[in-house]
Amino acid sequence: MFLGSEGESGVVAGNLSDFLWVLADGVGPLESVLYGPPEPHSSAPRTELTALAEHHATTPRRPARDIVAEARAEFPAFTEDLDAPCR
């Protein structure tokens, strides 16, 4: 989950391992929230973050686009639920 300082919020990944793969694919959490699942051609894998994910992640490597889309499907009302008590 991403909670920004200006009220941005959204789902990035369903678990820490998948979040590591999102970062390894060169996608940041704010970009995932603001622009949605990245286009396949916009991937810019980061070597050092890929090594980190390969060492620590317990889920298989997948494109950031798939991970973000799956997480949003798993938690479709996250932003609405978070905003509800604030109104």
Description:
The protein has five helices and two strands; from the N terminus they run ββααααα. It has a two-stranded antiparallel ribbon. It has helices at 16-24, 29-35, 47-56, 64-74, 78-83; strands at 2-3, 9-10. It is elongated. α1 (16-24) packs antiparallel against α4. It has one domain (2-80). The mean pLDDT is 89. 49% of the residues lie in helices and 5% in strands. It has 87 residues and is mainly alpha-helical.
Shape: elongated
The proportion of residues in beta strands is under 5%
> With helices defined by DSSP (H or I, 4 residues minimum), what is the helix count?
5
| Amount of helix | 40-55%
Which regions contain 5 or more consecutive residues with pLDDT less than 50? none
The N- to C-terminal Cα distance equals 20 Å
Can you summarize the main beta sheet? Answer: 2 strands, antiparallel
Instruction: Supply Rg.
Output: 13 Å
Average pLDDT number: 89
**Total domains:** 1
Class from helix and strand fractions? mainly alpha
Side by side, the strands of the main sheet go 1-2
Order of helices and strands: EEHHHHH
Region (Disordered): 34-64
Biased composition (Basic and acidic residues): 53-64
Walk me through the topology.
Elements: E1 2-3, E2 9-10, H1 16-24, H2 29-35, H3 47-56, H4 64-74, H5 78-83
Antiparallel strand pairs: 1-2
Summary keywords:
49% helix
Short description:
This protein has 87 residues and is mainly alpha-helical. It is 49% helix and 5% strand.
